[in-house]
Amino acid sequence: MDTRRLKVLGEEVPVASLTNITQGKIWAWTDKGRRPTKRKKDELDLMRILEAYPELRHKMPQEIRDQLPEV
Description:
Blueprint: E1 3-8, E2 11-16, H1 18-30, H2 36-52, H3 62-67
Antiparallel strand pairs: 1-2
């Protein structure tokens, strides 16, 4: 597993890598069994990740990339 132990609010906890978080969001976003509101939140999270980390553009689904211009 691609995690690191980091101090969060004074406690050491395992924290997933950005790549793993992104992949999990993609899986959740493409899960047709999830509520539409949850899937929309996952979509917005993916867009925010792409805005903050444009180097992950190649890992994003085309539908997400199409919504945000390259910078």
